[in-house]
Request: fold
Amino acid sequence: MLEARQNLAPEEKELIMELSPLYLNRLQTVKEEGIQQGQRLLVENLLQVKFGAVDAELAQIIEALIEVPPLEQAQLILQLSREQLLARFDREGQA
Reply:
């Protein structure tokens, strides 16, 4: 890595100082996107295991389910019927 080199020109040091925060920001963004994608996949898989398939109606509530804490997501999916899940998140989506 460039920072490891001891004899950097002043311009190189300045460039590294400017790029480091941008790199860290991008890294954080990618990490957050990965976490969100993982949560979505988990919710989709739980719905598929419980109901056999994720149809258009179930697909519409995935984003709302992702907003719920992970433990509550699992409890809701495992404990509620398809109709109860749809009613709960349809009502929240309209509120």
